[in-house]
Amino acid sequence: MKSTLRKLVFFTLILFSFSAARAQQPATGGTISGKLVDAANGQPLELATVALVRKADNKQIQSLQTDLNGAFSLTGVPNGLYILRATYVSYLSFLKDSIAITPAKKVVNLGNIKLHQNKGMLKEVVVSAQKSQIQLGIDKKSFNVEQSLVSQGGSATDLLTNVPSVQVDVDGNVSLRGSTNVKILINGKPSALTGGDITDILQSIPASAIETIEVITNPSSKYDSEGDSGIINIVLKKNVQKGFTGSASASVGTQHTYNGTFNLAYQNKKINVYTNYSYRQGDRVGNGSVDKTTFLPNGGIQTQDQTANQSFNFKGQNIRSGIDFSITPKTTITFTNNINIRDRYRDQYGNTDIARNDTTLQSIAQNNMSNGHGTNLDFTLDFDHKYKKKGEELTATLGYSSDKNNNFDNLNSAYSYFNPDSTFNSVQHNTTIGWQHNYIAQADYTLPLRNGKLEAGFRGTINNNNTNYISDTLNNVTGNYDYDPILSNDFLYKENIEAIYTNYQHDFGKFSVQAGLRLEDANINTQLIDTGVTTNHKQDYFRVYPSLFLTDKITENQTLQLSYSRRVTRPNNRQLSPFIDESNRLNYQQGNPYLLPEDTHSFELSYINYWKTVTLTSALYYRLTLDNIQQITTPLTPGNLDTTLTQYQNVKSASNAGYELIAKISPSQLLDLTVNLNIYYKYIVGDPALSIATTSGYSWNGNITANVKPLKRLGIQIRADYQAPQVIPQGTMKAIYGVDGGVRYDLTKKLNLSANVRDIFNTRKYVSDINFNPEINAIQVSDRRFNTRTGVLTLAYRFGNNGIPQKRKNKDQQQPLDQQQDTAPDDGSSLNQGGTQPGGTPGSKSGGGKG
C-alpha cells in the first residue's frame, strides 16, 4: 500500500511538472533556404525533394518539396552540423556537406543551387544506396543485419554472433560485454517470446525475418531496468514500401538445413498491411568430454572420464502480420501478431568410466532422447499520436502473449560395476508441460521544451509461468513405468511489476544534462508442489532506479558522454525452482528459491567521432553488481566424491571494468570494415560459506567484419572473432575463435544468389578448467561443441511494386539517412548519383524498449 501511495504521489509530481513545462515556448531555431534551378537554362525545378540530415548521427531532420519557383525554406533547425540533399527526376543528386547552424549564425541562404541533367540517361535512373551495416550512437548502436552475408539462411542466434559487443556461448546463451544478464526484447517490448526458453526461440526465428538489432549498453530510466549489462532489441521486418510488394527466398545447406520465407504487403495513404511466413529446419551435431581428477585424502587418485555426442534437430515456423491504420495524418493505430511454432529432437549418447588408482570401478553407458514442441502467440495493439508541436508525442501499447512448451525425455542408463561384477539398468521417462502468459500495458509521453524535453511513462507487466515435471521410472520387476513422486514436481511462478518513470533533458549550448528516475514495485510469488507438499515463497520489493547522462558536443563531429544507471537482474523461474534435476546422475542441478535479485550500478564514459570515411565509438565502463548470482558446485552429500550438486547462489559482489572500441571504416565503395575490441577485467568476491575463493583476471574479445565489393553485382563478406581466456567462478574458460564467410551475387535487380559457411575451419570449441573447493579437492577439464561447420545456399526474389516510394506523412517523422530508398529497395548495387522520384521512404519504427 505504501509503495502504491509513493507511486501515485510521484506520478502527480510528473503531471505537475508537465503543466509547468508546457508554459515554456519552444526555441525558434535556425533557417536554411535556397532555390533549385536547372544548371543549363536557369529554370526553377518545382516539386523537387530537399532533405536535411544531421551529420552527427545521420538522422533526417526535415524533408519537403520545392514550390512552383523551385524555392525551399527549412525552419526551426536546431544548432548543429547538417548535410543537405536535393534530388529531382532525371537530374544528378546534389549534396551540400557541413552546413552549420550556430547561436551566432541562425540563417543560412544557399542561393541558387544548380542541378545538372543526367545526359546519358535514356530511361528513368534508379538510385539504390546500400544501407549502412552499422549506425553508432552514444546511447544506442543499430546494426542492419540484412547486409550480414555470413548469416543469410541462418537464425537469430547466428545474427547475434555477428553483432559487436554480443557473444553467444555453446548452449546459445547470449551475453553482452561478457555478462549473460542482458534483457532481450522483440520490437522494443517484452513478451512470452523472450520469457520462455530463449535459446530455442532464437534458433527458430530466421535471420531473414529481422530488420535490425539494437544494442543499448547503459539505458536511461525510460527503459526497462532489467538486465545489468543492457538491452538487446530485435526489430522484426515491417513493410515500408507503397503499393503492392512481396519477396520470397529459399535456402538449402549442409546438416539437412532447409529454410524458406515469403512476404506480402500492401500500403496506401490510409492502410499498411503486411504478412511474413518463414520455415526453418536443420540439424546441429555436437560433442564433448569431461575429465575429472579427484585427490583422495589417503593420497590416492580417482578419475572420472566422460564422453558425449549429440545430434540436435529443430523445425521452426514463424508467422508475423500486422496492419497500420492512419486515423489522421498524425494519429495511427497498429495491430500486430506473431505466431512461433517450434519442434526439436535431441539424441544424446555417451559413456562414463570411473577409476581409482588406475583400476576401473564403474562404467555408465547413457542414451538419452528427447523431443519437444512449443507454440508462442503474441498480440499487440499500439496507438501513436503526434501533436502540432514538433516532437510532442503520445504512444500507448496493450499486449498479450502466451507460450506453451512441452517436452518428453527418455533417459536410458546402463550401470556396470566391477569388483564385484554387477549391472543395473535405469530407464526414466520425463514429461515437462510448461505454459506462460504475459500481459503488458504501457504509455509514453514526450514534451519538447525550450532547450530540452521532458519524458514520462508507465508500464505494468504480469507474467504467469507454470512448469509441471512428471517422472516415470521403469520397474525392472513388473516391466511397467511407475510414477516417481520424488522426481516429479509442479512449479508456479507469478511476477507482477509496475513502473513509472520521468526523464528531463536540458541543453546548455553544446553541453546537455539528462536526469531520470524510475520507480518499480515488484511482486514475485513461487509455489512448488513436491511429494505432495506445497512450499510457497514470496519476494516483494520497491526500488528506485536513477540515471544521469552528461553530454558534451566537443565539436560538431565529436561527442563525449558520462552516464550512470542503476539496473536489476531478477532470478528467473528455473533459477528459483528448488527441484533437483537428476538427469545427469554424476552432477545434479538445482535452483534456489531464496535467491535475491542482483543490484547493479553501471558507469560509462563514451566518446564518438565522425570522419569522412571513419566512424569511431569507444567507451570506458564499470559495473558493480551486488548479490551476484553464480552457479556453484559442491558435493551432493558431505564426503561424496562421485556426485556433485550445481546450485545457484548469491555471492557478495562482482565487478566488471573494461574498454570497448567499435570502428566503422569505409575507405571506398569497394571496401568497408567493422572492428570491435573489448578489453575487460573481472573481479568476483569469494564467499567462505560456499568455499569459494576470490577470482579475478583480465580478458578480451574482438571481431572484424570485412565487406568487399569487387563488382557492382558481387559482394563478399569475411568475419573473424576471438575470445581470449577468461575467469569463471571456479576456474578458467579457454580461448574460443572462428572464421565465417559469405558471398552474394545479384543475378538481376530482383533476383540474387548467396552462399555462406559458418566456422570455416571448424575451430569453435568451448574448453574450461574447473578447480573445485577444498572439500572436493578435484580439478576438471571439459570441452563442448554445440555445432560443427555448416554451409548454406540461398536464392532470394522480390516482386510487386517495389519501385514506388512512400511519401512522408509529416515533417516530424525522422529516419536514418541510410534507411532512405528513393525509388527501389536495396539490390546490392553501389550508390549511383542519378535522378530520383520526389519523396522518400521512411524507415521502420521500433519501440526501443521504452516504458
- Remind me, CATH topology of the domain at 2-123? Immunoglobulin-like
Radius of gyration: 29 Å
CATH architecture of the domain at 2-123: Sandwich
Helix content: under 10%
Largest sheet data: 22 strands, antiparallel, barrel
Mean pLDDT: 81
Give the SSE map:
Layout: H1 2-21, E1 30-38, E2 49-54, E3 59-65, E4 71-77, E5 80-87, E6 94-101, E7 107-115, E8 134-136, E9 141-144, H2 156-160, E10 166-168, E11 174-176, E12 183-186, H3 192-195, H4 198-204, E13 210-216, E14 231-236, E15 243-253, E16 257-267, E17 271-295, E18 301-328, E19 331-356, E20 359-386, E21 393-417, E22 422-449, E23 452-474, E24 481-483, E25 489-508, E26 511-530, E27 533-555, E28 558-569, H5 573-576, E29 580-581, E30 587-590, E31 598-610, E32 614-635, E33 644-668, E34 671-684, E35 695-711, E36 714-723, E37 726-728, E38 731-733, E39 736-746, E40 751-758, E41 766-771, E42 778-785, E43 790-800, E44 815-816
Parallel strand pairs: 1-7, 12-14, 30-33
Antiparallel strand pairs: 1-4, 2-3, 2-5, 3-44, 5-6, 8-9, 9-13, 10-11, 13-14, 15-16, 15-43, 16-17, 17-18, 17-42, 18-19, 19-20, 20-21, 21-22, 22-23, 23-24, 23-25, 25-26, 26-27, 27-28, 28-31, 29-30, 31-32, 32-33, 33-34, 34-35, 35-36, 36-39, 37-38, 38-41, 39-40, 40-43, 41-42
